[in-house]
Amino acid sequence: MDAFLDFVLRQDPATVILVLMLLSALENVFPPVPADVAAAVGAFWAVRAGVSPVLVGALCFLGNQASAVGVYLWVREKGEAVRQSREFHLLLPPEIQPAVRRYFDRFGGLGIFLSRFLPGLRAGVLPFAALNHVSPLRALVPAALASLIWYAALTAAGSALGLAYDDVKTTVARVTGALGTVGMLIAAAAIILLWRAAGRARAKRLADQAKGAA
């Protein structure tokens, strides 16, 4: 990240803002992209460069939202092809898919809102919402609200810490690391519950087949 900071400090403002927007947008396509750190460093850079950090934060948020909406709409359009693909079946076996649908039916917008705060999960929640036919209103509005709060917090942190880049990096890394741990624990619990649900579904199907054969 130090190399990234050296790079941005050598560029003109328009180039820096475009790079930050691109990094923010890529998170929804390639989750390992450090969009969180980029947003906080963008606010820090804005303070140094005499650019409005609010403007930089807003543009990063818009870049992130543009790609999030694009991915959601693409998956919604290509949903059946994605659902029938071998890769999707490996990721989410047919026995587990009803449990995922029940999750979205039960938690809906609140689940999407909370998931968008968790690194590692937030990039996947909208595609899965699209696959499970969650409407744009129920999916995109809570996702956008969560991202707006998150980007506002990152912008405020970067602006408040100003030139103290090491503090910016440490603070964001700690917060992101903590949320990432929470996200991994939730994901692990969800996988266990889903596989148990899949086992019960398989057992019920075999029992029904046995009754039919009898």
Structure, described:
The protein has helices at 2-9, 13-26, 35-49, 53-77, 79-84, 86-91, 97-115, 122-131, 136-161, 165-213. Helices cover 83% and strands 0% of the residues. The protein has one domain. With 214 residues, the protein is mainly α. The radius of gyration is 20 Å and the shape is elongated. It has ten helices and no strands.
- Shape from CA axes? elongated
Quickly count the domains.
1
Specify the helix fraction band. over 70%
CA radius of gyration is 20 Å
What kind of sheet is the major sheet? none
Which band does the percent of strand residues land in? Answer: under 5%
Order of helical and strand elements: HHHHHHHHHH
- Cα(first) to Cα(last) distance is 66 Å
Which ranges are low-confidence, i.e. pLDDT below 50, for 5 or more consecutive residues?
Answer: none
Query: What is the averaged pLDDT score?
Result: 78
Which class best fits the helix and strand makeup? mainly alpha
What kind of assembly state do the chains in view correspond to?
single chain
Number of helices: 10
Count of distinct strands:
0
